[in-house]
Amino acid sequence: MKKQFAIIGLGRFGSSVCKQLYKMGHEVLAVDARDEKVDDITNFSTHAVVANATDEKALQALGIRNFDYVVVAIGDDIQSSILCTLVLKEMNVKSVWVKAQNHYHHKVLEKIGADRIIHPEHDMGVRIAQHLASEKIIDYIELSEDYSIIELIASEKIANQSLAQLNIRARYGCTVLGIKRGEEMNISPLPNDLIYVDDVLIVIGHKNDLKRFELEGI
Ligand code: ATP
To answer: Which of 98, 99, 190, 204 lies most in the core, judged by the most C-beta atoms within 10 Å?
Structure first.
């Protein structure tokens, strides 16, 4: 089903979220206070509008309450980011995702009811560090303090064995969600599916269990 999104603030983060959603075929409203930012996104959004996102009337005129998701990607101007989030939640927008600049900004956003708070630089830093530190890990998504999803490259050690033989869930407490082989993607692996060298395993689990699996199991 097509979802409707509004992206407020078209810096590097906001504009890349906007372009990607549009590329995926979604309806995306792009909003920024600066003309040039809006001009730049016109060909990569459904509608692009110049507006001050702290102005309730302006947001109302855009019909913002009808959007499924609104992303507040206002960066340096923390005050505007907070005010805009507050107005959106008061207007009963269902889901408001906000980019936070720092810990204090995060705390305020939490208090005023932001549905999801994003730290893109921090999250990307963690992913890149994981990738750098281990030759086996090619991607890493933090789900919570304790749980993650990682992509690991299969070595000779487990090659030509089935998931049933490897018994990863029982031995390591992790679950294989999918297997990538070149361009092919197996998203519901079966017990008898074989793993080959250089397959990429997408694995979910507790961080300690994933670490153990990475070091001993693959
Ligand atoms: P990035 O790191 O993603 O590039 P940034 O942290 O540098 O972003 P800024 O450039 O500070 O973010 O802000 C992002 C955008 O938000 C800017 O294009 C700015 O014009 C816009 N913006 C700031 N305040 C408002 C507002 N009140 N209403 C609408 N847009 C705003």
So the answer is: 98
Domains of the chain from N-terminus onward: 4-118 (3.40.50.720), 123-217 (3.30.70.1450)
Ligand 1 pocket, 80 CB below 6 A? Answer: yes
Task: Indicate the top mutation candidate among 19, 29, 32 to test ligand 1's pocket, ranked by most ligand atoms within 8 A of CB.
Answer: 32
> How many angstroms separate the CA atoms of 166 and 171, rounded?
8
How far CA 12 is from CA of 50, 92, 140, 156, in Å, comes to 17, 27, 22, 41
- Which residue is associated with the tokens 């995306």? 28
Helix, strand or coil, per DSSP, at residue 162: strand
Among protein residues, the one with the nearest Cα to ligand 1's atom 23 is: 74
Residue for token pair 């996102």: 53
Q: Residue 197 — φ and ψ, nearest 5°? A: -55, 140
The candidate with the shortest Cα–Cα distance to 33, out of 4, 7, 67, 8, is 8
At 184-196, the pLDDT tens digits run 999 999 999 999 9
> Is residue 77 lining ligand 1, measured as CB closer than 6 Å?
yes
3-state secondary structure of 102: coil
DSSP letter, residue 147: E
- Between the CA of 10 and the centroid of ligand 1 the distance, in Å, is 6
> 59 CB less than 6 Å from ligand 1?
no
Relative orientation angle of helices 103-111 and 78-90, to the nearest 10 degrees: 20
